[in-house]
What we know:
InterPro entries: GlmU-like (IPR050065), MurU (IPR054790), NTP_transferase_dom (IPR005835), Nucleotide-diphossugar_trans (IPR029044). This protein is α/β, with parallel strands linked by helices.
Amino acid sequence: MILAAGRGERMRPLTDLTPKPLIEVGGQPLISRHLERLKQAGVDEVIINTAWLGEQIEEYVSDGHPWGVKVVYSREAKGALETGGGILKAMPLLGNQPFWLVNGDIWTDFPFARLPERPSDCAHLVLVDNPPHNEKGDFALANGRVHTSGAQMLTFAGIAALKPNLWSGYRPGNFPLAPLLRRAAELGRVSGDYWPGAWHDIGTPERLQAARQAI
Length: 215
């Protein structure tokens, strides 16, 4: 699943006319690169959730044929459901098996094939070095296990392998994914992987410019 429903408030005015996943970095829209690399990793079907300017994403991606994948859309209202609620809404499309997740507004050279197809825990997260905008990090990683605190904190890359049971007890609505991951980590149910390679969160015009320069 590619998360692509966000409004991109911090990217305005650019996102007033263009949804973040269609912003070009390295001469290619972010979502195009994701689809290309997911296909290389063996993915055949992709769920994309849409809300703000979602019609542009659907027009560009269509059914996924140019990338050799089948794309199905989970459409949300213009306000979007945040990450946790958006994934829960898409659960009938995702099914009851584990799935991979990637944020639509990141650029990375992480090889998706490194993600487990069937994680032993309810979540497996990819963590990266803390960028300037998230100096305190999100999670700690020790011996392949993810914790909510530790000597060296890292940042969640927005890339994960997840099981539907992570949403057990949650009802449809508007809520973020982060609290679910923290709760699972506190229960010892999250594994992780550190990626030292390139990773950019395209969250503001300044970060977009930095990513373009670096890439």
